[in-house]
Amino acid sequence: MTSDSPRNVLFVVMDTVRKSHLGPYGYDRPTTPGLDAFAEEATVFEEAVAPAPWTLPVHASLFTGMYPHQHGADQENPYLEGATTLAETLSAAGYATACYSSNAWITPYTHLTDGFDDQDNFFEVMPGDFLSGPLAKAWRTMNDNDRLRAVADKLVSLGNTAHELLAGGDTADSKTPAVMERTAGFIRDAEDAGDDWFAFVNLMDAHLPYHPPEEFAERFAPGVDSTAVCQNSKEYNSGARDIDDGEWADIRGLYDAEIAHIDAQLRRLFSWLKETDRWDDTAVVVCADHGELHGEHDLYGHEFGLYDPLVNVPLLVKHPALETGERREDTVELVDLYHTVLDSLGVEGGTPTEEGDEAVALDRTRSLLSADYREFATVDDVDRDPGQVGGPDGEYGFVEYSRPVVELKQLEEKASAAGLTVPEQSRFRSRMRAARRPDAKYTRISRIEDEAFALDDDPDEERNLAGEFEDHEALRETEAALARFEEAAGGAWVGEEEGEATDEAVQEMDEEAQERLRDLGYLE
């Protein structure tokens, strides 16, 4: 931390926002006047890589500095455990910490909120206090038993289904303003108590389903009925429903309207920080945890692939150690933001809050604020940081996608209802890992052919060169970096067989957990 480093950090995740729909990345619709202005005060990163294409493992990486295979939070083990979080480390160092979100994954039952002095979840169907009670107990009970994981899948599916049915209209529109108000209140309270602070917010508006506030819908999707377009990605991905060009245009319009709503609320919070003389003393990180596909590669949503619209995410950082208005084209990983926050606040970390926990210490070669950023001194100690196997110049980002349990279950249900089946050898049943650098990406896929793209010549990833990657130097080097990462991670996933839990396991649950499922409509 330098002498002029801000005392506080505001960390904003725009959930499911792809960078191609933002003004700072050249979008031709005026979705983000607030971020356009913010970009003039910040550094804009062109090549930021998310460690996974969905919320839970990405946030666990943000909060631990670990890759998904290290922290283990995924759909087979849907909670973070055995790791000291960023919030725990900062709280122990005397910072006031808060987490406000409307994402059902960022709650006490996944342990992603561990260590925050204050947290609230604005998810309309399952509020945070409920998730920390009986459901949390049922969740943990089920996930500690392999045979009960199908039931745990249903609990997550419940949140997705109920959100899809109920998260519309005025109540949906109120979430992000409420998050902004709560964040401002936390900042005032922290400063009244004489504390420096770390505030983390996740904004869910751009996540399916898209039901934007009327003023933004009229501007970006005039005449579009949000209840008439396809709002369930599994219907499309399963083949049960087709979407024509006109409907895709309507969907993208609604998506733009949601992004514009996020931007307006961020602009409101930023303006308040400036008007109250807090802006200069606040480092600000704005990113997306992952993006979204709208028909590219015949996919809708953010499952079943590691394509760039999902994993090459927007990232803007305001800090005096970074150049104002600069555009960076070097590889950046979201995992590095853990170290960036520690570095900004002058906290070394590395001390477990509980015996047996793993705590990642500050590594300045992982901090965006450091002159030595990604100048890894050695690639030998891969047990400490598998990302360094990419090479001492740090040009690779790594992405992991474990077994898509919940999405696969929903996909199979939609397919079955339409008289279709999901092939055993398909991307829908596959685990994936990718290595990416600005000009090349190689993705290992467990059940179908690998995918390799020369991003400099083929940014839309339309020509798979996996069958001839050895003739392409950049792809050959990228595949080799991925192989080293896989070795450090314990081996490739290729050829793994996965067991299947059945709904019969529900009978082995305790009565309290069964009663909770009855309350939620999953048992008669």
What would your notes on this structure say?
About 55% of the residues are buried. The chain is about 35% helix and about 15% strand. Residues about 125-135, about 160-175, about 500-510 and about 510-524 have low confidence and may be disordered. By secondary structure, the protein is an alpha/beta fold. Strand 7 (about 295) and strand 8 form a beta hairpin. The termini are far apart. The longest helix is centred in the middle third of the chain and has 31 residues, at about 245-275. Strands 4-3-5-1-6-9-2-10 form an 8-stranded mixed β-sheet, with helices on both faces. A 4-stranded antiparallel β-sheet has the order 11-12-13-14. The chain has a two-stranded antiparallel ribbon with strand order 7-8.
Largest sheet: 8 strands, mixed
Read across the widest sheet, the strand sequence of neighbours is: 4-3-5-1-6-9-2-10
Mean pLDDT: 84
Question: Spans with pLDDT under 50 lasting ≥5 residues?
Answer: 124-136, 159-174, 499-510, 512-524
The shape is globular
Our measurement of the CA-to-CA distance between the termini, rounded to an integer number of angstroms, reads: 58 Å
The computed structural class is alpha/beta
Q: How much helix is in the residues?
A: 25-40%
The count of strands amounts to 14
Global Rg: 22 Å
| Number of helical elements | 17
Beta-strand proportion:
5-15%
